[in-house]
Amino acid sequence: MPTVHLLDYVAGNVRSLVNAINKVGYEVEWVRSPSDLKNVENLILPGVGHFGHCLSQLSRGGYLQPIREHINSGKPFMGICVGIQALFEGSEEDPDVAGLGVVPVRMQKFNAETKSVPHIGWNSATNTRVGSSGDQSFCGLNPSSKYYYVHSYAALYQPDVLERDGWLVATATYGEEKFIGAIARDNIFATQFHPEKSGQAGLRTLRAFLEGTKLHTLTPEISIPTKEKTGLTRRIIACLDVRTNDAGDLVVTKGDQYDVREKGDMETGGQVRNLGKPVDMARKYYEQGADEVTFLNITSFRNCPVADLPMLEILRRTSETVFVPLTIGGGIRDTVDTDGTYIPALDVATMYFKSGADKVSIGSDAVIAAEEYYEAGEVLSGKTAIETISKAYGNQAVVVSVDPKRVYVNSPEDTKHHTLETGYPDAAGQTFCWYQCTIKGGRETRDMDVCQLAKAVEAMGAGEILLNCIDKDGSNSGFDLELINHVKSAVTIPVIASSGAGIPKHFEEVFDKTTTDAALGAGMFHRGEYTVGDVKNYLDEKGFLVRKIEVDGAC
Question: How are beta strands 359-362 and 326-329 bridged, if at all?
Answer without folding.
Answer: parallel
